[in-house]
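Note to self: user wants both folds in one dump. Writing first protein now.
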Amino acid sequence: MEKKKYVEDLVEGQNVRDRFAVRTKMPPKEYSKGWFFRLKVGDRTGDIPLVYWGGVDRQMVNDLYERIKVGDVLEVDGSVTTYRGDLQISISPDDFHKLRRADIGSIDPSEFMPTTDRDVEAMFEELMEYAAEIEDKGLYSLTMSFLEDEPFAEAFKRSPYSKNYSYNYLGGLLEHTLDDVRLSYHVTSLYSELDRDLLLAASIVHDFGKVLEYEHYTSIELTTEARLIGHTVLCERLVRERAQKIDDLTDERSLKLSHIILSHHGDFEWGSARSPRMEEAVALHHIDLLNVRMRGFLQAKEEVSEEDEEMVYVSKEGIQRPIFKG
């Protein structure tokens, strides 16, 4: 089934025969005619509730529910209804509606996940140009060992930066990294105390562990490695492994780079293995935090409508803050 209709296109009373990715699921419950369950499904334009109205055969309804997993793509044949003023997709076997899992091989992830608005190849080319500014042979060779590794580079270009807060779309990791590198480049002209080569290299590689942090086939989900170890440690391991193969990279430079990676979140409760203890580590932490907070704010401002009583965004600490409607 080729995807033709997106969530943003759905209107009440419409028959819908298309495919949607499963975001969340709620267990079956009893109702007047039998058993039903709810899902939240979506695509790159948004999410919508889906309700499967099953019959009296509880086991059949439960078996269907259990076969559906978060991240699956479902072929949906149902109708668009409203519940308490909000749209939902209703599926009832009594109305010859159907719900089944789609063939994985036919799925294009970009149909179900938002993608950066920027030109990915242009961003990557700009990142390569900044890498070429690194004069230290060891740091340059280390950085290029990642950027010139085609399988790694392609995964890096596709990866999201986060699941919820900011840059949470395909290509978001590259976009965030380039934003950090641009700021790092300019900050070194303001503070002569900073080691320019070290900060540039660190700003390029510091989030490479996020390539291993998320699965992003139809939704952004944390990997087991990310849940147990975290991307900062994963990144430091990746970088240290390659650093050991770079003849021009001194042990001292490699150690300093490891420290910047492990401390760039700044605080232990934010996932840092160490607090920043070098000028370059302090600089990257605040550069990184500025970009995350600004992008989170700007995304929240784009996503709310003028009808909302109060536009708010959620800070990195999980605190809701108001947005001025100017």
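First done. Writing the second protein, which came from a different request thread.
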Amino acid sequence: MVTAVADENSQPQDRNGAQNRNVSITVFFPCYNEQENVERTTKSALEVLNDLNADFEIIIVDDGSSDATAQIADRLADDNPCVRVIHHATNLGYGAALQSGFKAAKKQLVFYTDGDGQFDIKELPPLIGLIEDCDIVSCYRLNRQDPMMRKINGWLWTKLVCTLFRMKTRDIDCAFKLYRREIFDNIIMSSKGALIDTEILARATRKGYRVAQRGVHHYPRKAGEQTGAKLGVIFRAFGELLKLYNRIRAGD
């Protein structure tokens, strides 16, 4: 594995990172009960991608939301031909939502961030510049805006999975990542829950795909409820981790 680490204090020579380049990109958001956030997040993405003059599509993955997320997403798609929606009839889990987004992507690059608005998609363009020399840009959160226990759990989880799979990722579950779409033609994705980021990076690095890292800002959640810290999600992730470790050791 070749890992290039970008210093969060450095400024890239091309501040926009993707201006005047022919950019073909899918941007998608996994959403579960994000009625207060999904419209703002989608419109921000439209603004950034139009400024880049990119060949783009935006996919909203509604993971069985019980609020008005699905209706808002459908309206956004009706209003803009570059936006489409994938609906899960029931809540299948974070990993399943990401799988749907990656499998539906049609462009050369695939970027995802959560639909909760805790990241600023205006920090996407410099990642496009970085991926010219690698296959994945895996970001890490600067000044993570989560409760202390959640931050501690996240740090411990990252250390655990990086030790098991011999990776050097600073923030495994940071929901701000850019991939070459071809990766998803060559790896298996089986995780339906929170292990999905670990599975993708572990399988990709095992196949020799190159990973760069970059810091991005993280903001407090303005609305909605976090689900990642629920005990059921955590137990499911550990169960999937054991299965993934055994499968990769066996060469699967």
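Dump finished. Worth passing along: The first strand starts at residue 3 and ends at 5.
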